[in-house]
Amino acid sequence: MTTENYEKIHKEVLGQTQDHQPGVEEKMTPAPIYDDTNYKGSEKMKGKVALVTGGDSGIGRAVSVAFAKEGANVAIVYLDEDEQEDADKTVKHIEYYGVRALKIKTDLSDDENCQHAVDQVIQEFGQLNILVNNAGKQFPTTDFLAITPDQLQETFSTNIYSMFYLTQAALPHMSNGDTIVNTSSVTAYRGSPDLIDYSATKGAITSFTRSLALNLIEKGIRVNAVAPGPIWTPLIPATFDKEKVEKHGDDTPIGRRGQPAENAPAFVFLASNDSSYMTGQTIHVDGGDFVGS
């Protein structure tokens, strides 16, 4: 896939909405690009097992497919029945690259569900080497006073509490050389006036990444993060109105939204031994939207 292709797809996106988060990829027009055919795997993860949350669609699907290309068996977690078709398609695409796949339907905001998800991975594959904490929700709210306790609880439970729960469940099965990659956001660094609670969780994820990296360094488990900018995922039409969807990504220096496939190589880098001298760091894949420390 070339830059010209991505720019062409950007111009084809018209206003569209969905009424349910995190959204369904099969309903999006045009479909997000999750498998860049120019990306060739080189067995960087051969023999590894990865668990990817929100892996049925969007960034999670692209990451899962890229991991499969690199030889990893992949378990994906998705939220509910509305995402079933997306999950089935992702599993099929993972298996296309000659590895095994497992789909797990559960709500990760519950700690027991997180434990059960990890148990299923161990039962199926016998090991867990890579954890990608990627699932998330966002609820645009212009008036800060309109952010309700229920909304705050749902946003934090999904976006950051689940990372604590799932990581605690996964760590007893991880050892020296294994990796954790968390999905942060450009909003953690530049802020967002309409996504204050969401941005706060992403800021927490950045600090969680840095602190957990220091905590696990003696065990040889590395922890890093990717901070995407405006990426064409189901969460966008499931979050914003038609006008904002159509203009999504226009204000980045590159001048367009990104595709999930453009995020995946950063996750591969951080999850593989290519980044063996990195921990506690964040890679920014945001079209130049954020420049800072």
Automatic annotation (TrEMBL):
One of its GO terms (biological process) is bile acid metabolic process. Gene3D superfamilies: NAD(P)-binding Rossmann-like Domain (3.40.50.720). InterPro entries: NAD(P)-bd_dom_sf, Sc_DH/Rdtase_CS, SDR_fam. One of its GO terms (molecular function) is oxidoreductase activity, acting on CH-OH group of donors. PROSITE patterns: ADH_SHORT (PS00061). Belongs to the short-chain dehydrogenases/reductases (SDR) family. NCBIfam families: PRK06701.1, PRK07231.1. This is SDR family oxidoreductase. It comes from Psychrobacillus vulpis. The lineage of its organism: Bacteria, Bacillati, Bacillota, Bacilli, Bacillales.
